[in-house]
From TrEMBL, chain A:
The chain crosses the membrane at residues 39-56, 104-130, 142-159, 165-185, 220-249, 274-295. InterPro entries: BP-dependent_transpt_permease, MetI-like, MetI-like_sf, OppC_N. GO terms for biological process: transmembrane transport. Residues 1-22 are annotated as: Disordered. Residues 1-10 have a biased composition (Polar residues). It is a multi-pass membrane protein. This is ABC-type dipeptide/oligopeptide/nickel transport system permease subunit. Pfam families: BPD_transp_1, OppC_N. It comes from the Bacteria. The keyword Transport applies. Residues 100-292 form the ABC transmembrane type-1 domain. Its main location: membrane.
TrEMBL record, chain B:
This is Peptide/nickel transport system substrate-binding protein/oligopeptide transport system substrate-binding protein. Pfam families: SBP_bac_5. The keyword Signal applies. Keywords: Signal. Residues 84-461 form the Solute-binding protein family domain. Transmembrane segments: none annotated. It comes from Nonomuraea soli. One of its GO terms (biological process) is peptide transport. Gene3D superfamilies: Dipeptide-binding Protein, Domain 1, Dipeptide-binding Protein, Domain 3, Periplasmic binding protein-like II. Residues 1-22 form the signal peptide. PROSITE patterns: PROKAR_LIPOPROTEIN. InterPro entries: Peptide/Ni-bd (IPR030678), SBP_5 (IPR039424), SBP_5_dom (IPR000914). SUPFAM superfamilies: Periplasmic binding protein-like II.
Length: 304, 546
């Protein structure tokens, strides 16, 4: 870890990536480990495919997910419609593919927001300590006290008339999830800030923002990345849960949770429109959680 | 005036329609009412829109509950005619002055004798503008109603009693109408015409809290305790032992369970946690038929399902051609067959097939699925590029609304958003407060078996301020034809005028009729002899525990 310490004070190259010219850095070690892990490779491929699906759904299906024909509702799978038709006569395959975008967008944006908000506040709390830390830490405890999905349900159902449904899901999940990242970042920064290289940088006259972003952040980032990757899968599952309960993504937008919800009432008559999105949802969540596990093993060998 | 929540909503402003909003609340928290150890007969309802006051109730859920607490003046027989019930006779010679005589022996649940004055008091209160009663329109035909409802916002009445109501003696009173109305006798079975207990009012004429939460009725059941709206998940009742009519043979406890999801209620019915469910969701129909067997019922129903149009509040829809194009873009037949498993039939008139005056195919081209012509007409008429379609999420409507949204999206090339409201009551409130201005799901089931009930209560000018004319439709020609129907000398002539009024609606399409209902209901194995009357209320006295 100390390899990342000695940044020349005059360096203006903020974007310069240290791991590239320091072969023995944590990051390059991790990458070396990861490439050799089957779990990582499999989940990375799955995620790659899912991302492609989200970015370019028409690559997978040429059928319009909203071209529905009620007269052929609940039709069994056929050549043109691999997964059959749902209760409104829409193509299940095409809808499942197109739903990936909303689910992944919600997962990724929520993860980024949670990491940025929780991470920043956690670093500020740890760095300034005393009052700042006390106030912020108590605040996170308040949020911790709210049970996750119930709180999101409350937020989403209260504001659902005012905001776009996808945005609302992101906001409600973020509001309830940032404290976890906050705690992890805070703990990591507290550990890092008493180390010699930080003391040295301070003695050389580094200001708070330089200390935080140049010295503390790179050394506290690993655990946040690990938790974020795992959380990404969790957020996608949470989105599905909210949509299933009717407060998440709203029609005409498509999401896996919504598809499951729409199909459940006729599950006994027509199980496929429920099973396919459920399988996709499970695979996606599994892929992100596997990736998170692999990244944790690589970045934090102590936990192995 | 009854708007139906689930299977049927009918909104009527003044005459008698109950909205069928049926659908109920969440799982109930056990049957606190069964203190005596008797398991109550449990029935599914949705949360009533208002307090348990007859004049405030113009929707099916509240009406179902009130029908257990009160007993109507007349009952409807199989032929949709009124038979005297609490009334010994209802008579008239000129359709203008009606004499109502009460049977002896009826008492309120506190033992007080029921008198003609109790009817007069209740009806006067319903008619007063200051009461803001949803069912006020039912009183509009009585002479003197206009005096109690001065024009102008905020102007309150100075006269408190309608001059058309006269008490003759303890058990007789006369009703003089402002003009002859041949169907008046048919109206008297409706919720709004229930009497109210003499102690229902404060000195200043306002309703007491008790009258709203624990009304003293004169019907088969009395309330065990006050009903706190919004908190209580059940309404518990016990048979009133001094009730003079027929009582149930082998049980005394009745419980209404409030559900917000008809699916949940259906699961409870299958689990025998519920005994009667009168709005089995469309999605469960095919499985209900096999799961319930003989306990599953499919009755013709008076309700008509519409897409409502906020004519007066959204200028996007003011061109009649836009509405016609929307109507032509809806594939009624496929929706009835696929979404409702055949438990609905495509609507082709504003008047339901269950009453006289229905004409098959009256709607003609406008109700016939024709995507190409619809698109052309819509483009030409300049319809909006985005359509909102509101519905209550508690009544099993999502699927057909989504199917309709798909129809409109594909056939008209517009963006359509199906907007769920939490419950039937919230969509009604939102419409009444003019907060929502998109298209909305609506349905109407009659309050009395007359074609007039499908016209004025939903589309008459009188139903705009207090009533079920949620779209704000106002056409003097229509109002005039309905009036002429009311005053016609014979029933046949009345029907002719009503049909002409219906023609005006079919041309204007203030709402878009989509389907006619059937009532799909079922009961548990714990009870037998269950039947619904013409108002789709359970005939409690006949029900027996198995």
């Amino acid at each position: 870890m100390s390899s990342s310490v000695a940044s020349p004070p005059q360096s203006g190259g903020r974007h310069q990536k240290k791991q590239n010219d320091k072969p023995a850095s944590l990051w390059s070690d991790a990458w070396y480990d990861l490439r050799r892990k089957p779990a990582f490779v499999i989940s990375a491929i799955l995620i790659g495919v899912l991302l492609l699906m989200a970015i370019w759904p028409t690559l997978f299906s040429s059928v319009d997910p909203r071209a529905c024909d009620l007269s052929v509702a609940r039709q069994a799978p056929s050549a043109g419609h691999l997964f059959g038709r749902d209760n409104l006569g829409c193509d299940v395959y095409s809808r499942t593919i197109h739903a990936a975008r909303n689910s992944i967008v919600i997962g990724v944006l929520t993860t980024v927001l949670v990491a940025v908000i929780g991470g920043l506040l956690g670093m500020v709390a740890a760095f300034y300590a005393s009052m700042t830390d006390t106030v912020l830490s108590r605040l996170t405890e308040i949020f911790f006290a709210i049970p996750g999905i119930l709180g999101a349900l409350l937020i989403a159902s209260t504001f659902r008339d005012q905001i776009n449904s996808i945005l609302l899901v992101i906001v409600s999940l973020t509001v309830l999830s940032w404290p976890m990242t906050f705690r992890i970042m805070r703990a990591a920064v507290i550990t890092a800030k008493n180390q010699d290289f930080v003391v040295a940088a301070r003695a050389l006259g580094a200001g708070p923002s330089r200390l935080m972003f140049r010295h503390l952040l790179p050394n506290a980032l690993a655990p946040v990345i690990v938790v974020s990757t795992i959380n990404l899968g969790v957020f996608i599952a949470a989105e599905a849960a909210l949509s299933f309960l009717g407060v998440g993504v709203q029609s005409p937008d498509i999401s896996w949770g919504l598809m499951i919800s729409d199909a459940r009432d006729r599950f006994l008559d027509a199980p496929l429109p429920l099973i396919f999105p459920a399988v996709f949802l499970s695979i996606t969540v599994l892929a992100f959680i596997m990736l998170g596990d692999a990244v944790r093993d690589a970045l934090d060998p102590k936990l192995r | 005036m009854r708007v139906t929540k689930g299977a049927q909503i009918v909104a009527g402003a003044a005459l008698l329609a109950l909205a069928v909003a049926a659908c109920g609340g969440g799982a109930s928290t056990g049957s606190s009412g069964a203190g005596s150890g008797e398991t109550p007969v449990r029935m599914e309802v949705g949360e009533p829109q208002h307090a348990l006051v007859p004049g405030l109730t113009a929707e099916s859920e509240g009406a179902e509950i009130l029908a257990a607490i009160y007993d109507p003046l007349v009952n409807y027989n199989e032929n949709k005619q009124a038979d005297p019930n609490v009334a010994e006779s209802v008579s008239t010679t000129d359709n203008k002055v009606w004499t109502i005589k009460l049977k002896q022996g009826y008492t309120w649940h506190d033992g007080t004798k029921l008198t003609a004055q109790d009817y007069v008091n209740a009806w006067n209160w319903v008619a007063r503008k200051s009461s803001a009663a949803d069912a006020t329109g039912f009183m509009a035909k009585i002479d003197g109603y206009a005096d109690l409802n001065p024009e102008g916002e905020g102007t309150m009445e100075t006269v408190k009693e309608m001059k058309g109501l006269k008490v003759v003696d303890d058990t007789t009173f006369t009703v003089t109408l402002a003009s002859p109305f041949s169907q008046f006798g048919l109206m008297l079975g409706y919720t709004a015409f229930y009497p109210m207990h003499p102690k229902s009012w404060e000195a200043d004429g306002k309703l007491t809290a008790a009258a709203q939460e624990q009304p003293i009725g004169m019907g088969l059941f009395k309330l065990d305790k006050a009903y706190k709206k919004g908190t209580d998940q059940t309404i518990d009742l016990t048979v009133y032992d001094k009730f003079t009519g027929t009582k149930p043979k082998n049980w005394t406890k009745l419980q209404f369970k409030l559900y917000t999801s008809s699916e949940t209620a259906y699961n409870d019915l299958q689990g025998e946690q519920l005994d009667i469910h009168d709005s089995i969701p469309a999605t469960q129909l095919s499985s209900a038929k096999s799961a319930l067997g003989e306990r599953y019922h499919d009755d013709p129903d008076s309700a008509v399902g519409y897409i409502g149009v906020p004519l007066a509040y959204n200028k996007d829809y003011q061109n009649a051609d836009v509405r016609k194009a929307i109507s032509m873009a809806i594939d009624r037949k496929t929706i009835s067959e696929v979404v409702f498993s055949g438990s609905r039939s495509p609507a082709d008139d504003f008047i339901s097939p269950v009453v006289d005056g229905y004409r098959q195919g009256a709607c003609g081209e406008a109700c016939t699925y024709n995507p190409t012509a619809a698109k052309e007409l819509y483009t030409k008429a300049g319809g909006p590029a985005k359509i909102e379609l509101g519905y209550n999420a508690d009544g099993g409507h999502k699927e057909w609304i989504e199917a309709t949204a798909n129809n409109l999206r594909q056939n008209l090339g517009v963006e359509v958003e199906a907007k769920p409201f939490e419950k039937f009551a919230s969509i009604l409130e939102s419409l009444q407060n003019k907060e929502y201005s998109g298209l909305f799901r609506m349905a109407w089931s009659y309050d009395y078996p007359s074609p007039e009930n499908y016209l004025r209560p939903i589309f008459g000018k009188i139903a705009i301020a207090n009533g079920s004319n949620y779209g704000g439709y106002d056409n003097p020609e229509f109002d005039k034809l309905v009036d002429q129907g009311d005053q016609a000398a014979t029933a046949d002539e009345s029907v002719k005028f009503y049909q002409q009024a219906d023609d005006v609606l079919l041309k204007d399409l203030p709402y878009i009729p989509v389907y006619f209902y059937r009532t799909n209901w079922g009961h548990s194995t714990k009870i037998k002899n269950v039947s619904l009357n013409l108002l789709k209320q359970v005939n409690w006295a006949a029900v027996e525990k198995a």
